[in-house]
Every structure is written in structure tokens, then in C-alpha cells.
Amino acid sequence: MAGWLAPLAGPVELALLAQWSAFIVSVDDGFDRHGQSPAQVRTVLDQLVDVLDSADGTRYPASAPPAVRALADLWERTRIAARPGWRHRFCALYRDFADATCTETQRRARGVRTELDEYLALRRRTITVLPVLALVERALPPAAELDGLRDAAADIIAWTNDLRSAPREEDEGTENLVGVLARHHRCGRSEAAARARAMLAERMDDFDRAAHGERAAPIRRVRDGSLAWQRETHRNATAPGTTAEGRDRGVRALVRHLTVAIDPAGHVDDRCDSRVLETALLLALLRDQGAEPGEQERLTRFLAHRRPGASGIDALLIDACLDPSATADRAPDIASGLSVAVSRGTAGRGRLKSVMLRTVLHLLCGSALDDSDMPAPAGPEGITTYTDVHLLSTRIIHAHACGRPHTVTDAERDRLVSLLSLGRTRMLWEASATTQLLGLHAVRLSRPGAPVLEDGLLRLCLAVNGDDGVPFLDSQDLWLTAVAGLAFTGEADLAPYVGRMADLVASWQASDGGWPFASGMRQTDVDTTTRCMEFLQATDPGRYREALDGATTYLTGVAGPDGGFPTWVRGDPPDLDMTAGAILALAPRAARHGRLLAGALEFVLNAQQTDGTFERSWTVSESSAILRALDALHAVPAADAGLAARIAAATARSVARLLDTQNPDGGWGHLPDDDSDVLSTAQAIPVLARHGDPLSVSRAVAYLLRQQDADGGFTSPPDQVGPRPLPFDYPVLTDIHALSALRSARVPAVVTDRTVPGPPRSSRPPRSSGPATPSPTNWSALEAGLRGVLLRPEQAAYEQARLLVNQRFDHVRPQAIAYPADVHDVVECVHFARTTRVPLALRSGGHSYAGYSTGPGLVLDTSALNSVTVGGGRALFGAGVKGLQAHQALAAAGAGLPLGRCPTIGLAGVTLGGGLSAFTRAWGLACDHLREVEIVTADGRIRRVRADSPSGGDDLFWALCGGGGGNYGAVTAMEFATEDIRDLSCTRFLVSWPTTDTAAVIRGWTLWNADPATPRSVTCAFEQLSDSGAPGVPTVTGTFLGTPGALEPVLDHLAAAVGRAETGRVVVPCDYSRAACEADRWGGGTLGARVAFAAKSHIVREPLGPAAAAGMAAALEQAHRFTGVGGASGLLIDALGGAVGDRLPGATAFPHRTAVGVVQYHSYWHEFTDPAHVDRRLDWLRDVHATMRPHLGTGGYTNGMDPELTDWQEAYHGDNYPRMQRVKAACDPGELFTFPQAVGR
Fold first, then answer.
1. What CATH class does 986-1216 carry?
2. What cofactor is this protein dependent on (predicted)?
3. Beta 930-936 vs 970-977: how paired, if at all?
């Protein structure tokens, strides 16, 4: 502790501070845990204060307790180096501590509950931080102006201690800060702990704002050292967390649980679980040394407790340690049977791992070693510190076991001792108990008198966990903090802690540019470095640019010639996980490292097995490796269509593997035949959420939520391994992955009855009579007739399944949600809705602006109808296929289609409404490529209609091409004619101007887009967004089918039409999938957190005149003035023209063939946005729509339905509406398929 409090002090001062620390802790713990009465406490403290107050502190009664005699000795030695007047200051502080402690003891004895303000003031005095600060500062000028800073340090240390000790103190019946907050705010302990953590963050900020200059430095060191001591010693980490309250489960309870896991300095705080290997090695070493019999008893108890149900390797190690004589002879044979398991996933070091196992067995039970297994000598160059110690230790142990100690040189023995003498800034050598134990066993044989042996044994005994076992590592804090920080960046309640976490990570960057996995270590590694880079890049790439530059140099320096990256040092075998991490870390700098990343992508693609899996290496979970690999493959735009096709094919294989291996309970295990576990499931969910099947995601989320612990966290068997392939467990990692999984699946943060403001009721009366609420028997009958899944409110998966993309409709609770497995299931659902008169809502992606893809009755979700077949110039898609899935399948076949930009949008919905895309001007609308539609109509018939179908089928096909989804029946499949993209180049671009030029940009863009000279190969949009009062800049962003060089003159023509100087132009080549989806474009994706939104639209029929452009700009200026109003607003003008105009307005149901574009006025907000702010945003939408109507007239886009629009028939459908009505009357005369803006008869 002394070293943490005063790291710059000399040996004498450190020894004195260490003794003071021991005295203070023993006195404090004695009062807290020994149940002394107030009178006894007062007596002891009066004696201590008397020692300090007397002129000669060495005098005390002969009957004085040990604490008094210890203080007298300390006091005599402490006063010598103090400044004049310091003694009186220290005495006053210690007397204040004594009085506060007595007050606290009396209150507890009388059962008096302390109010919050009183508790905070009392706690500052009882924590003894102020006396400790006085000790550290005793040779310095008083600096009374820093008393506020000292108080802040005391509060921080006290509150941190309270958070850590809260579970234990609750068990003991003692109320600390968490209990006081729970009582004060009338909330549960989980919320109270989160409130305490928020108070800590604020107090840390107070301290940092005030701590300036050299004189404040000692106070900062005491604060940071005390926090480090609490963290590293895990003094109070002996009990589970607090229980989540009531219905407050899911993401919100998990976030609260994780909030407390972040210590004030920004570390994600956790303790590695105990393992058999390290426990057995320590017990054997203590036994051989004849040391610490009490510790030996604890370790023996742990091993005996672990023996029942132990794995094969653990059982062998336990038997070898606890019953060496009976195990020695048979241990080698048993070990040889385990050699395959031990050698798996060890990056080519299988033989060395097997030798290490036999070496360990020799240390535990004396089993024979073969001198042929002795590793060859190796120099320290090109190997890690761990490998160096392992090789040296193994050589020494083998040499002594085989009676040939002379085969190891004195230089090797000296190097081992020298290595173990370094790296002592952590409790354990380089944080690893395994490596230190092997090294100490070797030192005992070769240098038994070396000080590192006694020192190492002390450190290892201090590292023993509360369950009496030894952990593999004593910390993984930098790796955990980076992984957690990346997960926290998108979570509102965790984001405030991210900045301090990032600063902490950046501060521990090593001189070589990399990071070690724990603070205080020397050995850096690729995995931690890539995780830290991802985190810093996501947090603030400008602030951490220097750190990112250094890390980039580190990574490029260790890359192998085959494109792979090793775990540790250049020249080691490449590793899939490391290579994937390097891609993710370097992706933001892809323009400068294209060749390196191309090789890395090639390595990952080649590493995939035919079944879609990847080498598991540092994990035992298939889904973990798949997630990391696929994230890497999609992090960098593919350089050409061929690479894009391979990435799409690899993704499809991995997705198919996960779908095939999902367990009946909805989860995944480490391997296909294993029971489900939280970690494996949590790492499968993001893959399927981005690339797969929503129904499978719903089942997986339901499994996860069933596993949530009472404290809001999650528990799982570990999936990290080290030394490979032995698992080790940091429990917080399960919580981090669970949070990422639930966020990727868009699970709401809180289960609550509170609703987000929804749209006003439509003035249009419902067409169907009120539904008869089906009895349970009715629903059971429907379920019995389905091959797919029927979800009801009582089922766990229902809560996630019922949600649309738009939070405005989170209050809607359908009676049931059906996921049909095939078209016959759809027939069953249609028949059920017709005969029971239950309202029916259709859903393919859940993106309905007006919320029409949900309702109070039966929701028919086609997500599971997601089959894909592409080839021969056609593509056949199930109605549940999403945008990204479709584009990846198309890319893999060298084909393309204009199917919308959003990765998660359902193809049925976007196509049936027309379908704008990144290729609209080049290829027309999505519906223009339709060749056949499979649909179940209201009479339950399965119909396949084409443009030339007889008996009214042609009219139905016409209406389906742009007339809007959900009007005529339930579409189940669609066939498209595809475009050939095999020789196609794609380029993305963004051009921006100053905010003051908004009107000129709007007008110039519409003129340019309508100009016949503008090539069809460019499709783009004008967009501008105002976020909470911060004005955005006007931009034009889009896609060009061609090279960057060919695009530049086209953009020059745009700039001339605008007539204002650009502020920026970005032109980037990309692959087809990236061009098609534009997931990172505003309004282009819904992969992240869900939001609430509303929109209105107009059709821009001709280039805007000056007045119209000025009106739009003025409307945006109003949005810029929403300072302090939560959310964002703006407008988006998507381009029409080009190929869209090749058809007449009546050729399909989409009537806006001659228009320039579609303008959508958007506003976004969040679940907890103040309703008054929501109303202001909705009023803004109404105002801008009304303002622009005189300029733009009637007109709107059916895929952006506006529930407030009264003349929607003309706006969406124009002159085509009468024909659409006739089709409706023919195929749905009873209007089974209805919603407020559905086509009527």
C-alpha cells in the first residue's frame, strides 16, 4: 500500500508509511468487524489520542493494548521529519477521526439511521484518508487552500470502499452509502449502487478540475494509490452484487450491474476465478519449502472441493497433488491420453504444451521425465518474456529431474532469476501466476537462496482468492477496460464513464506502441493493442491520434508476410483472432494500409473451414471466432467484386453454421453438441442480428434473458483460454458480451408501462368491425397448424419480437406474433384472421414509419421466409430477406439490384412501395425489376402473378409494383431480374458546403439532378441534419457506378450548379455491398440503438425555384434553433430521374416517374426525451410540410407513410388510385388487409 500512496518515496519513508497503513487498517477493521461496544471503542481511541497529544508520545501505561504501543513507536519516528506545526494538524485530524468513529459506533448500537448528508459528512471523517494525507505531506508546506481537494480525495476513497463492501456489509447488517441512498431515494439497492457510482464520477471530476500544480500531486497520488490498493488487493470482493428490483431486468438491470464494475479511475474491475493448475503448483511449492501451513490447508481444501466433477486434466492435476505416491507411476500414461486435448489450438506449440503438462505433473507428484523432452536452449531475442521463463524453467526442471543439472548453464539460471526480479510493479510477475510458479519451482532447484523465491511466495499467497484457490492472472484490466469501453460507447447510462476509461487505456501505452493486457506489465500483445485501438478510435480519434499512430506502427511492424498477425512478437505463427483484430483496428486507416489489409482479409478468408467455422485459438467457443472473423471481413470495403463475392459467401457459410447449430432452447454452446451457455449465445446474436434470421435472434434473446441473474448480470462457463487450451474466467466479460448482444438485437433498455408519444389517431374509421378476442383455444389451434412459431405475451421472446424499429410504437402489444416457416403457414394465419376477425398486420422488416406493421391483433412476420437463390440473371428472395443479406448474396453471384439502402429493411416492404436505392437513377426502382410475386390473398389462395398473368393476375402484379405493402395480401416471395456487376466499379462520395449556403445547395442540386447531362450512373441525395440545436452542414452524398477519376468531372458540374465554394469533398472506391447498403450514412441503417422518429414527405416534381429553396433552408434554420431540445431533425431529398423516368406514370402503381426527387422531413428522438421536446419536433414537421406545400403541391412517398396526411390517396398514388381500388375489390373485397392508409375498395 505504501508504494501506491508514495511511489517516489525512499526505502525508509516507504517502511514508515507501510507500518502506518497496517496500523490504520488494523484499527479500522478491528472496530468494524469485532463487534466492540461504543464504550470499548471510546476507551481505545482515547488512549490513542492521548499518545498523540502528550508532549512525549513514547509514554503509555504498561497495561496499554498493542495498538497503543504500536502508535507510540510510530509517532516517535514520524515527528522527526515533520514541519513545525504539523503535529497539531495531525492530532486534530486523528481526534476528528476518533470522535466520528465513536459517533458512528453509538448510532449503530442504538439502531439510529443516518440521513444522507449527515452520512456523507461522517464518512469523510471515519475513512482516515485525511490523517494519511497529513502523513504523506508532513514535510511539505501546509497549503490550507487544498483542503477542498483533500476532502474530495477522502470522499472518493470512502465511497469506493462502500461500493466494494456493500454486499458484505449488507450481510453483516451494517448500512453504508448504498443502503443510505436506497433509503433516501426509496429505491432498490441496485439503483442505489448505480447512484453511488454516478456520485463517484462527479466527485472524481471535481477533484480533477481542482488538482493543479506540483503541490496537488501528492494528494492525487494518495487518491490514485488508495484506489489501486482497493482494486489490486480485492479487499472487499467477496460477495455477489445487489439484486435487481421487480420488473427492472433486461438491459437496464445489466447496465446498472456494469456501472458498479467500473472503478473511479476507469478500470473495469474484476477478479479472475481460481483454477486447479495454479492452486496445485502453489501448494506443491509451499510443501517443498515447508512454508505457510495455513495457506497449504486452504489450497488443499480448494482442490478437494474441486475434485468431484473435475475435467480430465484438472482431475489428474488434483490427484497428482493430493495423492502423489498413488499417481506418480500412472500420471505419464494418463497425460499421454490427454495430449491431443492439451495440444489443440496452441498455435503450433502442441508438443511444448504436452511437455509442459508432464513437467507440471513431475512437480506435483514426482512422475518421471524423459530427457528427450527437454527443450533446446533459446536466446531471449524474438520470444516473449513468458516463453523465455517457460523454456528456462522447463530446462532447469528437466535437467534436475534427469540427474543432469550440468546441461543447464549458470547464465541460464542467472537469466531466470533476473527475469523474475523484473516486472514487480504488479502483485504477480507479469500478472501471471502460472509463469511465476513455474519459474519459482525452477529457482528452488537451481538458486534456492535467491530472494525472488521468498518474495514470490509471499506475492502468490497474497493473490489467493476468497474461495482458497489461485487465479491464472491477477489482472486483465487494460484488455477488459478496452472491450467494455467499446460496448459502453452506445449506452447512454454507461457513456459518461467512457472518457475516463479511454484516458486510462491511453496512459498505459507501452514505448513500442502496443499495450499489455494488464497495467504495470512489460510484455505487449496484438490482441490487447487492437482492442485498445478500436476503443480509442470509437471514443475520440482526434484526442488519441498520437496513441493511435504509435499503435499503428506497432501493428504494421509485427504483421507476417502471409497477411496474418501473431499474438506476441513478429515471427510467431499467425493467429486468426489477432489478424481479425488487426483488421478492425486498422480499418479507419484503410486508405494508408490497403495492401496490408488486403493480405489480412485474404488470411481470414482462407482460415475459414468448409463448415463455416474458424480456428478457435484463444477461445473454446465457435461463435466467438465467427463473430470476430465476420466483423473483420465487413470492416473494410472490398477492393473488387471478386473479393466482395468471397466475403459474402464466407458470411453465408458462417450464418448457416450458426443457424444449423442453434439449440432447441435458443442458445449455443461452445461446440454444437454442448449445452447452451451465455457467452457463446451472446457472441452468436450479433452475427445473426446483422446477417441472419430475426426469428433465431428472438429465440436467442429469450434464452439470454432467461439466464439473467438476480443482480442483473449473467453467469457463463468461460470461453477464454490461456495457457492454451486451458479456460480461465473473468466473470464481467459475460456481462459485457451480453450487453453487446442485447443492443445488437435492439432489445429495449427497460421493461416499463411508460409509452413513447405516438402519432395522433387517424380520422379514418376502421373498415372492419371490432375483433372478437380469441380464446386460448383459438390461439392453440393456430399454433397447432403452424410449422413455424407463434409468440404470445407470456413467452420470453415476445417482448423483443413485438418491437418495430421505431420506438414510437413500443406501447403496441399484439395478441400474438406469427413467424411462418413456409407459405402454407401464411395461409393458416390468413384463414385464422379471416374466420376469427382478429385484426391482421403484416411485417417484413418492421420499418413502417406510421407503425402499420404492428397492431392489437395478429402480426404476421415473414422474417423466417428468408431463402435466397441468385443465378442466371434472376434472384428469388423470400419476403423476409433483409437488405444486407440480399446484397451479400447478390455480390457473391456477381449480380446487383436496387433494393434500398438500409441493411435491416425488409425487401417486401421496400419493393412493394417502389423502392429507392443507391442505384435508382442507373437501374430504376426495385419494383421495376420484379418479374414474379408469390402472394397469399384474403381467400387463402397462393397466387404467383406476373405482368402477363391471366384472370386479373396482371392487374394484381401491376398494383404490387409500387402500390405499397400490406394492401392486397401477404407477399411470401419475389423473383427479380438482376444486373450484372462482375466488371462494375463503385465509388462513394460526399460533398459539403457551409450552413449559410443551404438554399443554394438545395436549388443547385435539384437543377443538376434534373439536367439530362448528369449521367445516370450517379445516384445521390441532399441531406442536412440538426442535432439538439447543433446545425449540420448541407451535403450531397451518394454512389457512382464508375471509378473515382470518372466521378470528379461529374461533381465539378454539381459544384458549378450550386455556385458556392465547397468545404469538403470525399471520394472513396468501394465494393458493391458497401455501395448498396450505406449503413454508416444518416438515415441509412438501423443496426445500432433504436430511436423514435416521425417523418413527412413531398414529391419534388421539378427543380426548385429560389423561393422554394429558401423556404426549405428557413425550415432547417428553425430546427437549428432547438437548442437544448433532445433529438435531431433534418431533411433528405432522394434522387429520382434517370431510369425511373423510362416508364410512364401508369406503367406501374408508382406514379412519380417524372419527378426530380422525394424529400423527407425527419425528426428523431429517444425513449426518454422530454415529451415537450417531442411535441416541438412534431410541430416543426407539421410546419415545414405546410410551408413547402404551396411550392411542391400534393405528393408523398408511400414507403414513408404519414399518418397525419388526409389526402394521402392522391399524394401517394395520384391518378393510379382508381385502378388500385378495382384491384383491391377483386382480391380483398372484405378488406381483411387493412390499416388507416390502406387502399380501399
1. alpha beta
2. FAD
3. antiparallel
Enclosing H/E stretch for 1098: strand 1092-1100
Which residues of the chain does CATH 3.40.462.20 include?
986-1216
Contact 352, 375 (CB under 8 A): yes
503 catalytic per annotation: no
Short-list 1113, 1132, 1108, 1114, CA closest to 1189: 1108
* Strand bridging mode 816-819 / 858-861: parallel
Type of residue found at 161 = N
Distances, alpha carbon 1075 to alpha carbons 21, 649, 888, 1039, 1080, in Å: 63, 18, 11, 6, 11
Correct CATH for 2-242 of 2.30.42.10, 1.10.600.10, 3.90.1260.10, 1.20.1110.10: 1.10.600.10
Tell me if the bond preceding 725 is cis, omega within 30° of 0. yes
User: Architecture of 477-744 per CATH?
Assistant: Alpha/alpha barrel (1.50)
3-class DSSP state of 1130: strand
Helix (H, G, I), strand (E, B) or coil at 734: helix
Distances (CA, A) of 608 to 575, 617, 652, 728, 979: 12, 13, 12, 25, 29
Contact 1070, 987 (CB under 8 A): yes
Q: In one letter, which amino acid is 693? A: D
User: What class has domain 776-861?
Assistant: alpha beta
Who's near 943: CB < 8 A, 6+ residues apart? 934, 935, 936, 937, 953, 956, 969
Task: Give the burial string for 720-742 (b: 16+ CB within 10 Å, else e).
Answer: bbbbbbbbbbbbbbbbbbbbbbb
CA distance 234 to 263: 12
Q: Work out whether the CA dihedral 458, 464, 469, 471 comes out positive or negative.
A: negative
**Residue of 319, 527, 1071, 1134 marked catalytic:** 527
At residue 409, φ and ψ (nearest 5 deg) are -80, 160
Which residue positions in the chain have pLDDT lower than 70? 29-35, 55-61, 234-249, 339-352, 423-424, 746-777, 1027-1031, 1078-1089, 1123-1126, 1168
* Pair 756, 807: CB distance under 8 Å: yes
Question: Which stretch of DSSP H or E encloses residue 934?
Answer: strand 930-936
pLDDT digits (tens, 9 = 90+) for 1135-1166: 999 999 999 999 999 999 999 999 999 998 87
pTM of the predicted model as reported, rounded to 2 decimal places: 0.73
Contacts of 388 (CB under 8 A, 6+ apart): 378, 380, 415, 419
CATH 1.50.10.20 boundaries in the chain: 477-744
Chain centroid offset of residue 865 CA: 29
No. of H helices and E strands in the chain?
Answer: 47, 23
For Cα atoms 879, 884, 885, give the angle at the middle one, nearest 5 degrees: 55
